[in-house]
Every structure is written in structure tokens, then in C-alpha cells.
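[09:14] KT: can someone run the structure on this one? pasting the chain below
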Amino acid sequence: MQAAVSQGQRPYYRYYVLLILILVYIFNFIDRQILGILASPIKKELGLSDQQLGLMGGMAFALFYTALGIPIALVADRKSRTWIMTGALTIWSGFTALCGFATGFWQLFLCRLGVGVGEAGGVAPAYSLISDYFPPQERARALAAYSFGIPIGMAAGVLFGGVIAHQIGWRWAFIICGLAGLLLAPLFKLTVREPVRGGFDAKPTQPIRADHSSEREPARTRTGRWFGISLASAAGALLGGLIAYLTDWPWAIIISGLAGLLLALLFRLVTRAPERGGVEGGGAVNVTTPGLGDALTLLFQKPSFWLLALGASCSSILGYGLAFWLPSFFERSHGLALVDRSIFYAGILFFGGMVGVWLGGSLGDRFGANDKGNYARVPAVAFLVSLPFFIGGIMSPSLPLVFFLFVVPQALSLMWLGPTLSAVQHLVPATMRTTASAIFLFVNNLIGIGFGTWFLGVLSDYLVPRYGANSLRYSILYGMVFYLLASGLFFLAARRLNQDWHRE
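[09:31] RB: done, C-alpha cells below
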């Protein structure tokens, strides 16, 4: 609280910041997961296979989402995190709206790539902001509260996406959700202030001026700028040529042009020219911000970080796979219509997710105070307990029983978020938090999103000759092995967390 008050902020302002960060995260998951509930009408209209749907839901999103996450985080550890998140929200919302204009697989695939580009800058900076608004003893709960955006966003995407698609078509579901996110972007930037980095730690690790930039920048940050320019230029050229080759030239102009304009705006808003002669002039001593190499060097000395990242990845393989494919499962195996399965699955996501996210954060803070290893043991136990409920829900023919059997493991399977994200923040100093979060997300999302959704789709297609209409049921059932792997990796991480914990 002292850090917030010292910056002239009202004591409860940080809760407003947390609330609007949750709102942005809700739109993050609405736009990320809405494709799952719309998969059936899209498949029918565009004539797609489960494998193609899996590619759009997984690899299309994950490709740039994972590749750009770390470069953006490096900028966020030096520049205004609020500007980066504003630009990210604008980009992913714009491409979500464009999904509504797609007329074929490749057009929708490329629009999903654009959503991934935007969302690459939407999460890691938020983790860092929360860590600078809340003291260490409250961070697991604050990060758990932030993670409410996951079940709320998933539930809202499923519910509103299904209802809108039923009433006026799946294209309008994309357009309306995308435009709503665009309206949120200016409110976020105008009302969320950049906090002092590390203000609740031993002492602020980097002085921040009134415009929220560092007092002096090390010269090597200019290399990061040119890296960003080169990356944006190469991506624009590649996407422009690919779109023109695979679809029509108007789409090449619309998608590549919009992406270039939004990235150029983001670049201009978050970068500042260094003061000339700042080092030679003999002024104030530079506070060097660690780079990617520094962060990796430190993290390679901490096995618990990689065990947490791999454990989260295994859980995300099944978690993202279930989020995408369960609506189709309820249609194929239980005969639920679009609106019915939207309401049914939204209830599972909302009630189970809200309880699980908060319970995980609360238990992490409570038991982790005395033994840091409990930040990993809480989710490890939760994954094990969730398995019999998931298996029962997949195999049960009774819809009321299916609802109960899925609500319980939905809660258990999300308990990892609060304690794990808090542990990642505490494995590195404040100046590395955004970069460490991005590396964690890179591993988690490349494996979880990129592989999970596609894997369950491919396995479903493969099992059709054997199981027919129930092939998706058994694809999900076989995927439960990933929760076993996740539990084992979290148990291993628990043995190292006390030793690897960063202490000022």
C-alpha cells in the first residue's frame, strides 16, 4: 500500500486496476476461445475437417502468439506496459472482427494468426503490473483474481458466441466481440497508470519518470528497437505475399495493411529516443535493465521454473483441447443444439472455473507462506483428483450427471493458475518479471495451444473408423494422460522451489 500511496494513488486504486485488467483478460479469452463454440457452423459452411479446425484453434493462434511474446516482453521490461497492452488489445480485437469476413480456411487461418499477434502482448505485461501493484504476500490471490478472466472469458465467449451465431450467424459473433474489445482499448489506456517497478520489493529497481519511462536507457535497448522493426517488416512481407498467393489480393491489402499500421502505432507509442551523450556526459549512473540473455542465464540455474513451465504445458494441452472440443463433443455425443450447448458449457466454465481459480490462489498463499514448494503441490494434487471426475463425465450418458462431473474437475484443473504464476514472479528480480513471464508463456502456449487443440482433432479423425460418431469422446479420454504428466512435473518442481526462490 505504501508504494501506491507514495505515487499519489488512492489506496483502493489498485483494485480498480486489477478489475480493468480482468476485463481485458476476459476479452482476451473471448476472442481466443470463441472459435470453439462456432466450430460446428463454420465446419458446415466452409467444409472443414476436424484437423483443419484444430489447426485454426491451435497452431494458427499459437504461431505468432508464442514467437512474439518474448520480444514484446523485453520491450515491456523497459517501456510502458500500459501502452503495450493497449496496442495488443486493439490488434487482437481488430483481427477477431476480421474473422467474420473470412470465406475459406486460409483466410480464417490468417485472421487467427493476427489474433495471436495481438494477444502476444496482452498477458505477460499484466502479470508484471499486478506484481507492482500488490505486495508479495497478496500476489497469488491477486494473480488468481486476474485469472478469473479465463473462466469468465471462456464462458462469455461460449455463451454469447453461441447465442449470436444462432440469432444472426457466426460471422456476426466474431464482428461484435471484436468491436467490443476495440471500444475497451482507449478506456484502459486513459485510466490505468504505470506503477514503479519493484515498488513493493526491497526498493524500486528502476526509477520511473512522470511519463513512465526510465530516467536513462542503456544503449543496448536500441538494438531491441531495430529488432522490432525488422521483425515487423519481415512479418508484413511474409504475410502479404502468403495471403495474396492463397486468397485474393484485397485480403492481402486489408490484413497486411491493418497489421502494419497497428504495429507501427504500437512501436511509435512505446519507444523513446535515448538522450544523446547520456553516458559520456557523466550524469546519473545508468540503471541497466537485464536482457533476454540475462534472464535465461538466471532461469537455467533454476530447474523449478522449467518444471513449472512444462507441467503447465502438459495441463494446457488438455485444457485448451477441452475448451475447444467439448462444445463439439456435446453436440456429437449428446445431441445438444447450438444454444443449448452454449448455455450448458458456459455454466461449467463459469462455476467450475471461478471456484478453482480462487481456491488455487488462496491455498497457494496460505500453504506457500511456510513452504514455497506448496505453490507447486497444490496444483499437483488437484490434477490427480480431477482425473476420475473427467473420465466419468466423458463416459456418462446422463446430461445432469455430466454437468456435475465436469464442473468439479473444471475447478480442479484451473487451480494451478494462481500459485504457479505467483511462483514464476518470485523466481526472478522485479526487472525480469515480464521477460520471465513471457518465457513461461512461450513454453506453455507453444506446447499447450499449438499442440493440444490440433492433437485432439487429429486423434478424433484417426479414431473415426473405430468409434464413428464417438471418436471425439475417446480422443478426449486418451488425452487425460497429459494431466498425469502435469501432476508429476509439479511434484518435481515442489522439491526445488524453496532453493530457487528469489530473495532480495
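[09:33] KT: thanks! The radius of gyration is 22 Å.
[09:34] RB: yep, looked fine to me
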